[in-house]
Amino acid sequence: MTRKKRRLYMLALALLGLGTATALTLTAFQDNIVFFYSPSDLQTKQVGERSFRLGGLVEEGSVKKLPDGVTTEFRVTDTVNTVPVSYRGQLPDLFREGQGVVAEGRMGGGVFVAREVLAKHDENYMPPEVTDALKRAGVYKEAGKEAGKEAGAAPSSGPSSAGPQPAPKAGS
């Protein structure tokens, strides 16, 4: 066998090994990849039977505990579209109407059947996926922003309706 043929066989073997490794990796990840959708995204996408995350706000007045004492039904909204959700289990302590939520599960009969529900952990935090979905819907209001200013921004030199501002310390 000539050197040229030997190199060609080695290259083919290396490509075959790389292809096999890539295929095995993708197969392993396929079961672990979970997509995120907002209620508006679900109106335009076919999700089928696969598991995904649904994020948005818990709609006011939508939380109902069923007589079995274990199942809770509520609606998740991005203020444009709404998806009914059914969850069997104990909800997080911070789960409330009007708060951000991410639920993981799958669609079944027009209802999102959640196997896990995550609630935001304080009044200023919202999962990035939910924030992005609300921004796309044009309804996101950032906490701490006032009239287009970010919280903690330096006051302007003009008149302020917030009252007198403290004088800067000497030397700063």
UniProtKB/TrEMBL annotation:
Location in or out of the cell: Cell inner membrane; Cell membrane
Pfam families: CcmE
Function: Heme chaperone required for the biogenesis of c-type cytochromes. Transiently binds heme delivered by CcmC and transfers the heme to apo-cytochromes in a process facilitated by CcmF and CcmH.
Low complexity bias spans: 150-172
Protein name listed in UniProt: Cytochrome c-type biogenesis protein CcmE
SUPFAM superfamilies hit by this protein: Heme chaperone CcmE
Record-level Gene Ontology MF annotations: heme binding; metal ion binding
Membrane topology annotation: Single-pass type II membrane protein
Membrane topology (Cytoplasmic): 1-7
Residues involved in heme binding: 121, 125
Positions on the Extracellular side per record topology: 29-172
Protein species of origin: Azospirillum thermophilum
Region (Disordered), start-end ranges: 141-172
GO biological process assignments: cytochrome complex assembly; protein-heme linkage
Span of the signal peptide: 1-23
Cellular component, GO, one term: plasma membrane
Domain of life: Bacteria
Similarity comment: Belongs to the CcmE/CycJ family.
Record keywords: Cell membrane, Cytochrome c-type biogenesis, Heme, Iron, Membrane, Metal-binding, Signal, Signal-anchor, Transmembrane, Transmembrane helix
Lineage: Bacteria, Pseudomonadati, Pseudomonadota, Alphaproteobacteria, Rhodospirillales
TM spans (from-to): none
Matches recorded under InterPro entries: CcmE, CcmE-like_sf, NA-bd_OB-fold
